[in-house]
Amino acid sequence: MHRFANPTRFLRISNAVLPFAAIGTVILVLLGLYYGLWNSPADYQQGDTVRIMYIHVPSAYMAVMVYGIIATCSASLLIWKHPLAELIARASAPVGLAFTFLCLATGSIWGKPMWGTWWVWDARLTSVLIMFFLYAGYMALSNAFDEPGRGNKPAAILALVGVVNLPIIKFSVDWWNTLHQPASIIRLDGPSIAAEMLTPLFLMMGAFTTFYLTLLALRLRSEIAAARLRNAMMTGQVEA
Amino acid sequence: MFAAFTAMLIRDMRMGFRQAADLTLSLAFFLVAASLFPLGVGPDPDVLATLSAGVIWVLALLSVMLSLDRLFQSDYDDGALELMALSEAPLFVLVLAKALAHWLTTGLPLVALAPIIAVLLNMPAEGFATLIIGLLLGTPTLSLIGTIGAALVLGARRASLLTALLVLPLYIPVLIFGVTAVDAALAGLAVRPHLLLMASILAAALPLAPWAAAAAIRAAFQ
Amino acid sequence: MFAAFTAMLIRDMRMGFRQAADLTLSLAFFLVAASLFPLGVGPDPDVLATLSAGVIWVLALLSVMLSLDRLFQSDYDDGALELMALSEAPLFVLVLAKALAHWLTTGLPLVALAPIIAVLLNMPAEGFATLIIGLLLGTPTLSLIGTIGAALVLGARRASLLTALLVLPLYIPVLIFGVTAVDAALAGLAVRPHLLLMASILAAALPLAPWAAAAAIRAAFQ
Amino acid sequence: MVEFSGKELSSFRGGRLVLRDLSFSVRGGEALLLTGPNGSGKSTLLRLMAGLLDPLTGTLFRDGVDVTEDAEAHRHSTYYFGHAEAIKPALTIREDLQFWRGLNQADTDLEEAISALGLSEQADLPGRYLSAGQRRRTALARLMVKGADLWLLDEPSVGLDKASTKLLSDLVKRHQDSGGMVVAATHVDLNLANETVLDIGQFAVDPGEALSFSGV
Amino acid sequence: MVEFSGKELSSFRGGRLVLRDLSFSVRGGEALLLTGPNGSGKSTLLRLMAGLLDPLTGTLFRDGVDVTEDAEAHRHSTYYFGHAEAIKPALTIREDLQFWRGLNQADTDLEEAISALGLSEQADLPGRYLSAGQRRRTALARLMVKGADLWLLDEPSVGLDKASTKLLSDLVKRHQDSGGMVVAATHVDLNLANETVLDIGQFAVDPGEALSFSGV
Ligand code: HEM
Ligand SMILES: Nc1ncnc2c1ncn2[C@@H]1O[C@H](COP(=O)(O)OP(=O)(O)OP(=O)(O)O)[C@@H](O)[C@H]1O
Ligand SMILES: Nc1ncnc2c1ncn2[C@@H]1O[C@H](COP(=O)(O)OP(=O)(O)OP(=O)(O)O)[C@@H](O)[C@H]1O
Ligand SMILES: [Mg+2]
Ligand SMILES: [Mg+2]
User: Fold this and answer.
1) Distance from residue E132's CA to the centre of ligand 4 (Å)
2) How far is CA B209 from the centre of its chain?
3) Nearest by CB to E102, which of B3, B82, B222?
4) Which residues contact C41 (CB under 8 A, 6 or more apart)?
5) pTM for this one?
6) CB C177 within 8 A of CB C138
7) E58 — alpha (psi -120 to 50), left (phi > 0) or beta?
8) How far apart are the first and last CA of chain C?
9) Could you tell me which chains touch chain A, where touching means 3 or more CB pairs under 8 A?
10) Lowest mean pLDDT among B106-120, C14-28, E2-16, E144-158
11) ipTM of the complex
């Protein structure tokens, strides 16, 4: 009856992770800001606006990654009915939505000086916008039912449908000639960015990741508490 | 299997035509909404021309979306959907048939109306062919993707709004390629790549959408 | 009488909005639908500005039509409408309450969100006031006229369908005045005439629409 | 002494004549049972009585006066309980009853009505979660939140368990004792007090013959 | 000899436990009657059996094998007759039956099914014009256009007149004689052949107790 698999072990793990993640976030952010704002050159053509990159790129990566996590969890929920998958997915959604928004915001702030406009409807930007709507739809759908767990399956299906969007986001810059930067970090022939820029970039990426882990652990606590309560009552009844 | 498909198709078409209310409403929306834009933009024909493709496509999207709840809702309410899920025919096939019926009663009429609107928004004649072909390739995709949205919201609060929220983002690629194709035609550029992209989206939606919709329907009985 | 009115209002509102979260749903819906237009016609700010009024009024029409069928149909199908017609309260009053509930759940959210959308479509600030007032005057009319159409299709006989379609053109003047009013404001012309016209349409619809709808409902039971 | 009666009623439905020259009469405290095979016209007659349908020919009288003269008054003092239960998936039983009470400007005690029909546990469940019988009982509870002296019940006992059926007949009895009138269509025995049976079958136009009308 | 059985079934609905540790078994030719007060869980159990609901715990077996192993096959050989009749206002009875026959790839003679349920006169009436019993009978006629060896009937006799009720029990008898299995929920006596009664009431979680959940 692993639908009621008591997630204590998982909870213990996440509780163990929590402090490290939290502290790690603080340290990495401080380091990242230091390198990003002081200890890195201004771009030879972009000037200081390039520093937006240290927020923009990590948030973009996180937005994409978190969606990937949600999709994976959704799959395992539909196939193996794994209870934790459902919890993780639901806990991740708002965080992912926030990262996507951050990516869009920083992006358009950066776009103003670079492209002379807040927004262009090119493939990269549009596909990210779609992801933003998908996040929103996912959350709306999973809360749209009167019955507690009823929204999980539909939401999971939606998340899987939305996966087709990920490759578009990732490769849009290569498939279509867009205003947007082509991949300059994850490349077969190695990064094409000045090393001094890479350091803060990676620091910030680390910071964002640990930040996500922190939020996840916190949210899971409450989610699991609620689920536990429900399960305890149900199983209690079943055995009674 | 094929028998089931045709049975489903015939039945939905029959019902569509007999209680044509919502069917015609979505078409009426298309016309009424389109007639608003010449006003807003003012008489300048060139401005209108540049907009026409976009306006037509957006309105097509919206009016298809207007008729989505017709897909499963009533069958869900009166228990027919349960019986379908329990029938010999795979739900997948039935969803496909429903999508086809929906397209024949919604998408196709839109394609037929499009030229009228195009003239209304004085789109240059070079664009027509591409517009029509684009709609012919695009609207079936809209119906297919629509089945997912319509199935996901069964039993939900404010279903119609939710459907829109879920479906419209997924419609965006169709919209973009449809419009760019027409613009390319107007600019005298090659349209085949755009149309091929739309065709491939349709090809992808054909198996995926019914599968997802069927899964969603089963979930709705819980 | 008034008790019945409020009872009806509360009940329909309850069914419309089960909780506050549903308002954010409306927001999301309007944002998605609105963002389709720039996707379609391109990001050019000037173009969008010229379209903005039309777009917002199309959204108004859309949101009204999205929920119209739900206005009477479900109550008709499950027998609630009969009981209402047999209740102590005059049907006229109940229709009025339903129309108000419909407006509060569809029209009003749009009015509240219109400024945001207007900004996104960078409509010049001079247009805002007129847009809002226009929506405040126009969307109730749309809901009221909608009741007639929704009531006429209940019988689902051919004739009633046609008459229901005849209702749709009644929307057009409201929409046209709504759009032209904003354009006038942007062009720095007088807007009062347009708004007065809209107000008078509303004044006319307020008594007529519920009366017609009530008659249509009684006919639907035959 | 109140009375509700009808003379030479005929009804034309779905392109065919359903009832022909039917007359009836109920007095305060009496119950009129409509019986007859499926499709014989019981529901049709009840809808005529409720004023939802206009008869093709014939008239309905309240205490001798044509009801069409004051349709309002007739509606106010009539409760029609049809095949459809009008349960809203989204509304809880309590919300539903509140609504109908408001609509009928009655001031009945809801809790009383709810407990009278044994719905106390479900009172706050949305209609979506109700079982067939619970839906039916909710519809019956509405009888109590509208003070009407004429009850028109269309197969009221359908879907009810034994306890609730008993409960129903008690309800009806109480209504009769307080001088109310009842007309009920049924296929099963409802064992009400001083009931007179009216077999619709004899007024029904047998479909074979009726089909010839459908050309009309 | 076919058999359909379930072990320790429990079901969780609307935020509360409805059935607990229920087991049953039907053999070919047998009929299992589900009785119990409203809201005790009869329909829920039937929906579990049909595979429309997943049980919270427990398993269903066909001839000893878990039905979830071949859900398709189970569905194909099961007919579920619920509270909802799935009658379309716009479709005539004949069109409706044609549709369901096509869906189930059966090749039954429609006219036979139609006349067997005494619907010959209404066969070409749109569903909108059907009386309660006629709707019910149309739904029953679908039994005959799907060849299933397990029938799940939820209060099948509701709304039927005496003749049709008789007709129903004949239908069921014929099905049983040909080795079919029947599970029927009912509040009235259906007098079927070799029937065993299963009182759901005893497995139902009494709402008072159950309500404590709905908070979750
Ligand atoms: C709203 C507008 C924008 C959006 C939605 C957006 C979105 C994204 C996304 C999703 C990524 C990560 C792609 C991946 O995961 O590989 C990314 C990366 C990046 N973006 Fe943006 N972006 C926007 C504007 C800009 C602007 C204006 C610039 C600078 C001119 C910019 C420069 C970059 C760079 C340098 C990267 C890293 C490229 C890589 O190494 O993959 N972005 N952006
Ligand atoms: N809305 C309608 N429009 C047209 N004809 C109808 C309508 N409803 C019923 N009929 C026809 O009128 C006849 C009588 O229907 P009615 O519902 O009164 O029968 P009934 O006695 O209530 O049967 P049951 O016992 O099945 O409820 C039926 O033959 C039916 O075909
Ligand atoms: N769709 C649903 N969602 C949640 N709970 C439900 C649902 N349907 C029924 N219930 C609850 O489950 C319980 C059992 O319902 P069920 O319909 O099985 O009862 P039943 O035995 O069929 O009663 P009846 O004789 O009235 O049909 C009821 O108390 C009801 O509140
Ligand atoms: Mg009847
Ligand atoms: Mg039941």
Assistant:
1) 5
2) 13
3) B3
4) B50, B51, B54, B55, B58, B179, C47, C48, C51
5) 0.90
6) yes
7) left
8) 26
9) B, C, D, E
10) C14-28
11) 0.88
